Amino acid sequence: MKRSFLLSYVLLVHAFYGAWCSVGGSLHCEYSNSLTLHRPHSVSITEFGAVGDGVTLNTKAFQNALFYLNTFSDKGGAKLFVPAGQWLTGSFDLISHLTLWLDKGATILGSTNSENWPVVDPLPSYGRGRELPGRRHRSLIYGQNLTDVVITGENGTIDGQGSIWWDWFRNGELNYTRPHLVELMNSTGLIISNLTFLNSPFWNIHPVYCRDVVVKNLTILAPLDSPNTDGVDPDSSTNVCIEDCYIVTGDDLVSIKSGWDEYGISYARPSSKIKINRLTGQTTSSSGIAIGSEMSGGVSDIYIKDLHLFNSNTGIRIKTSPGRGGYVRNVHVSNVKLDNVKKAIRFTGKYGEHPDGNFDTKALPAIEKITFENVSGEDIGVAGLLEGIEGDEFKNICFLNVTLTVKKNSKKAPWRCSNVRGYSQWVSPEITCDSFEESIFPEHSSDCFGLSENNVETSSGLSRSPWLLFW
User: Fold this and answer.
1) Span of the secretion signal (predicted)?
2) pLDDT tens-place string over residues 293-349
């Protein structure tokens, strides 16, 4: 291995691993991509015969360019430059030590011919395609067992042209599960930044079995009625940072997953150490942030901060079901602003949806140590719809400084709770459920995950005024 490559790789590792540290119970993800964007070798997609007219199919050009650039993987890596134009393509594989750069005005267009999206085996932690039994279409941009991959540019665009896939799905005309726009598997050191994603056939960005992932400065858009067009879905992945994104789609803006029922339990690959910061968006069908429902490998150490959701169905939701097994624990949600949201916070213990009939109904999930701190909302339909599982109580659920203005014409109780237990302090409207009658301070702060030091210190006098200035 050449010395230049060793230096490049050491700098990359430092950029990622140095960025993750524990301070005051939360993860900081300080990231600069300047080190990883310099590659000693660079080519343009036009050098391999690509034509950016939006009509010519360029799959072979992308494949040939990446095959050529792979020869530089041990020489510091390489950059594939996509200039302004409409670059129609089918699915193609990335390589390690690569920067895929979309210049200003460049759009990678997904083919509308399903034959240009190969069919591959299902994920082992799912056991089948997510929406249909059997296999699944591969993503437009795909990679597995990779290291040091950057997908970025000057706000170029990746457009899946998903409307034809949505029609096939609605009409029951698909034989295999729809493809994502980007899926990277079993990979380390990934950066996706400074791009716009449009009209994904299915989920937009799906890192699965990955670690050290940064998703930053993205705009992700799909029609509000487009089916299952999730924004970013980290799945059985660790050390993931999602920051400064604007997402409007037909499903969850971000959904954290870790496998499905018996397949996820067996594969046993959790999602952990995930930070979501400064996310703004809208979804009229689903949630701003969801955990699950596929969480059978476990989900833990999740930090969500500075979320702004407007004109949407649900703010934050945890979805699970008997048969899932696994766990969701150590989740801290803070500094959330909700405007015109039907359900601010929702737990669903009987979500259903199983891959087959072989799941174990006795495999119950453990949901515990979930904290909501500094949450505000206007024009809210229901403050909290908290439904656990009978015989499997969700516990140590904490609400601190939560103020949600419920619509005056709402005929529903602001809080509804079943099989969920925890603590609350300074919540309006007050949680009237018996299972939340105990206050957090002074006796139960240790039962609540990740409380900010300011609030803990202020609680000694039970005075709200010093830290209400935060708003």
Assistant:
1) 1-21
2) 999 999 999 999 999 999 999 999 999 999 999 999 999 999 999 999 999 999 999
Write down the pLDDT at residue 82. 98
Write out the CATH class of domain 252-355+367-451. mainly beta
Sort 26 into a burial class: Cβ within 10 Å, 0-12 / 13-18 / 19+.
Answer: middle
Average model confidence (pLDDT) for the chain?
Answer: 91
In the set 230, 251, 252, 261, the catalytic residue is 251
Residues 305 and 276: beta-carbon distance below 8 Å: yes
CATH architecture type of domain 43-215: 3 Solenoid (2.160)
Q: Is the pLDDT of residue 85 over 90?
A: yes
Give the domain ranges of the chain.
43-215, 252-355+367-451
Instruction: Kindly write down the DSSP assignment for every residue of 397-420, as one continuous string.
Output: EEEEEEEEEE-TT--S-SEEEESE
Instruction: Give the amino acid at 410.
Output: S
Pick the closest to residue 306 from 285, 282, 275, 329 (CA basis): 275
Please name the amino acid found at residue 406.
Answer: V
Identical fold, 43-215 and 252-355+367-451: yes
